[in-house]
Amino acid sequence: MMNPGLWLLFGNAIATTVISAGIVMWILKKEYLPAIKKLEEEKDTPAKSIPDGITKEV
Amino acid sequence: MEKIIFFTVVAVYVIAGIIVTRYVKNKDDFYVMGEKGSALLIVGTLAATYLSAVTLLGLAGIIYNEGPVAHAGLGSYGAWLGTLFAVIYVGRKLKALECQTLPDFFEKRFQNKWVTVIATSIMIIGLLGYGVVQLIGAGVILSEILNIPFPVLILLFTLALLIFSAMGGMYGVVITDTLMFFTMLTIAIVISPLIIGQAGLDQIKNLGEVIPGYYGINGAADRPFGWVFSQFLMWILFFGCTPSLVSRVFPAKNDFVILKTAVIGVFFAPLMQLLVFIAAAAMMVLQPGIDPADRVFIVGMMDYTPPALAGIGLAGLMASIMSTASTLFVLTGFALAKDLFENVLHKDFNEKKSMAIGRGAQVLVAAVVCIIAILRPSSIFWISIYAGSIFAVSWMPTIIGSLEWKRMSSKAATASMLAGITTFIVFGELKRHEIIIFPVGFDHFYLGIIVSVLTLLIVGFIAKPTDYELGYYKKIKETRLSAVTIQRILAKKNGAAELKREYKQTVTVAVSFVVISVVLWGYFIVKLGI
Fold first, then answer.
1. Domains identified in chain B and CATH numbers
2. B484 against A2, higher pLDDT
């Protein structure tokens, strides 16, 4: 016998984790990723100004 | 055997509480643990505060008789989402604004004595109603099991709680909560599966055929859907703003700790509840007719698990009560000392005197608890619903309005809180005495929340916010916890690498727990649902 009520019960438990993980990923993407990308760009910029051969040696 | 293990585990909590007091050196340590909380500690204190006698005694008993879906399918789901809301939205925002308590926020947002006094008074009544009364109710049951006179047990509770809260402040509460969390986890992941295993998943599934409506949305008691849905609304609105959950994030070290807690801590909420609820249904297979049903989980532990585990289980039950109650003690004490005495009366004390007042306030709370104990309330579940509703109808609209609405003013906050709570109490009493009758499916809780929101909107549109209120609203919109966290991490040596590491760790945590959740609850859907 199917128990659809239990689908709702356990489905909501899964939904809770999916919602919390989704919100956290959204916050990370919106508030932290731009800062991390900016840091990486700043790190790359001086390296690009140095000729290729020297950069690789270093 | 059970008693020896029970008292040994409780002694460990108390000794840990005493040791922790050595680390409390100033006011920040006392109120927010010096903001040093790691993800483990914040998850521990959140999960421990979440699980209380309401689940292990009240809800377990009701679910034993009526089935899990009517109460947990929407009601507990509301509590899980409310916990998420409390951590990720209200708590995170208030921590960014450097609030140390919830009434602190009302004080900073409006700088109005009446708003602070009303909000703090509602908080004290609600917290006492929710936590301390359930502690006393549980004390009645434990005193029977352990053959300890009720007043002695209450006194022991109070003394132990005073060690955590009055001496250790938030430091003591967070550390002991985390220790207790592991005992409680034993109930969920060891004791409950043992009871479920003895009944057998097939027999538990079969209850749906033996007892009509046992796995239906209305339950075996055939509760109206309007009532079932009101439970969802009540728990989401109550837990979304309850100080006992929101304040758990204030001691967090940084935003990444809060984000990890939002995933891990919120995952533990259904984990700790649903396994207990399935075990309660298993008890209906193993031993029908337990009365009063509040005792069902205790009977399960004592009669269907080995004595050593039963002892740990009882200590876990005690822990669920003590961790919730210690948080309530500490918050009620803070409310009296910091929010009412220091903020409202604008008393400026030095560190030492401020802490002394904080501790004194908690001793006062403890004394009040002992007096309330004489009343011995009967049903834990219904009292918790009443106390929760008071928060939901009065605080939630004001908190959301304060954070998101430019026109929000002290007048709108005062009117909304008073209108919501008065409507809920007055119409609840009129309904109880059958002076008025509501349509089927309409609860006086709905009326309270509608009146609270409408009053907030009407007064908000009529009364103009002050320049200070408009200025603070601007500050709310400009302040981000992520900006503070990025700034602090980058100020360290190898800060950029740490920032990237924290980012990757948080992503990994989020993905991992989604996988765990799908596998775990998917298993129960396959075994019980199909």
1. 2-28+38-379 (1.20.1730.10)
2. B484
pLDDT tens, B349-389?
676 777 777 778 778 877 777 777 656 554 555 555 677 78
Q: Does B422 touch chain A (CB under 8 A)?
A: no
3-state DSSP assignment of residue B407: coil
Cβ contact, residue pair A5, B521, below 8 Å: no
Tell me the two tokens of residue B502. 């924290």
Is residue B252 classed as helix, strand or coil in its secondary structure? Answer: strand
DSSP B152-186: HHHHHHHHHHHIIIIITHHHHHHHHHHHHHHHHHH
Rounded to whole angstroms, the Cα distance separating B203 from B196 reads 10
Separation CA B32–CA B100 (nearest Å): 6
* Secondary structure of residue B189 in the 3-state scheme: helix
Q: Going by C-beta distance under 8 Å and a sequence separation of 6 or more, which residues neighbour residue B108? A: B97, B99, B472
**B314-358: pLDDT as tens digits:** 888 877 777 777 777 777 777 777 777 776 666 666 767 777 777
Exposure b/e, B400-417, CB count within 10 A at least 16 = b: bbbbebebbbbbbbbbbb
Q: Using an 8 Å Cβ cutoff, are B365 and B332 in contact?
A: yes
Q: Which SS3 state, helix, strand or coil, does residue B212 take?
A: coil
B527, with CB counted inside 10 A (0-12, 13-18, 19+), is: middle
Residue length of chain A: 58
Give the distance from residue A51's alpha carbon to the nearest chain B alpha carbon, in angstroms.
25
For residues B274 and A13, the answer to whether their CB atoms sit within 8 Å is yes
Put simply, the answer to whether B81 touches A16 (Cβ < 8 Å) is yes
Q: Return all residues near A34 (Cβ < 8 A) that are at least 6 apart.
A: none
Euclidean distance between CA atoms B33 and B50, whole angstroms? 19
Map out the domains of chain A as residue ranges.
26-58
Q: What are phi and psi of B252, to 5 degrees?
A: -65, 145
Smallest Cα distance from A48 to chain B, Å: 19
Q: Which of B87, B24, B492 is nearest to B267 (CA)?
A: B87
Q: Max Cα separation, chain A?
A: 72
Which residues on adjacent β-strands are paired with residue B37? Answer: B252
pTM: 0.86
Closest-CA residue in chain A for B210? A1
Residue of B nearest to A32 (CA): B482
ipTM (interface predicted TM) = 0.85
Q: What residues of chain B score a pLDDT lower than 50? A: 378
Count other Cβ atoms within 10 Å, centred on residue A12. Answer: 22
Q: Which two tokens stand for residue B424?
A: 């809920």
Question: Going by C-beta distance under 8 Å and a sequence separation of 6 or more, which residues neighbour residue B231?
Answer: B71, B74, B75, B78, B385
Q: What is the pLDDT of residue B276?
A: 93
Contact B486 A12 (CB under 8 A): no
Chain A residues with beta carbon closer than 8 angstroms to that of B77: 12-13, 15-16
B495-526 burial: b if 16+ Cβ within 10 Å, else e: ebeebeebbeebbebbeebbeebeebbeebbe
